[in-house]
Amino acid sequence: MNDQFPDPCKMIIVSAPSGAGKSTIVRHLLNSGLELEFSVSATSRAIRPGELDGREYHFITSEEFRQKIEAGELLEWQEVYPGSYYGTLKTEVKRIHDHGHYPIFDVDVVGGLNIKKMYAENALSLFIQPPSFEILEQRLRSRDTDSEQSLQKRLDKVRWEMEFARKFDKIIINNKLEDALREAERVARGFLGS
Ligand code: ADP
Ligand code: 5GP
Description:
The protein has about 190 residues and is of the alpha/beta class. It has one domain (about 10-190): Rossmann fold (3-Layer(aba) Sandwich), CATH 3.40.50. Helices cover about 40% and strands about 25% of the residues. The strands form 2 sheets. The chain has a 5-stranded parallel beta sheet with strand order 2-7-1-8-9, sandwiched between helices. The chain has a 4-stranded mixed beta sheet with strand order 4-3-6-5, with helices on both faces. The mean pLDDT is about 95. It binds adenosine-5'-diphosphate and guanosine-5'-monophosphate (5GP). Adenosine-5'-diphosphate binds near residues 16, 19, 22, 23 and 24. Guanosine-5'-monophosphate binds near residues 87 and 111.
């Protein structure tokens, strides 16, 4: 157990390559009446149209990010793409915990496994697997939120990220969306006992 947060508190970690459907599945779980609350990470990446500071992320500069690392404010952090930093704020876990809710994290594969290591049996780690590389690329392109350069950075990492799948507690294959949502909800309910 992590000695910074001594009370046992269950949590759900969702990781996957970009475009696999993490956000879609996390949104569904948040709307499933499971008393989950989203852990809003800090990031130095640019805000996308439609995103709100403090809702999807706390958008900060690279300099502010470095200060948070130095001040020990991050539970974990990664440079997920070159020049783009993402990290879980310790205050988020505490805030959600204090509400009596369960945190749900949308984090990269390395961050996900790091959180799992800290919280062990109190954490359920889910890996969302796309049906194929080609379908993942189509989904990312049709989401239409990234520049070609940002898209390429994401695609360059997919095969490496897929290697981590077997280290997670459960792999959810996101082929037909309704099936993936149902399966994610079934596993989450089983883990939380609700
Ligand atoms: P991530 O958060 O992993 O980057 P998203 O949840 O944003 O991925 O999904 C990427 C895109 O693919 C979105 O436009 C989403 O609506 C779409 N999508 C997700 N799951 C499916 C699915 N099973 N079938 C078709 N499109 C999907
Ligand atoms: P995006 O830029 O598409 O929102 O996210 C890019 C990647 O960063 C995704 O894999 C997402 O899960 C990951 N990510 C978001 N927040 C965090 C975080 O706090 N820590 C880590 N390690 N990864 C994160």
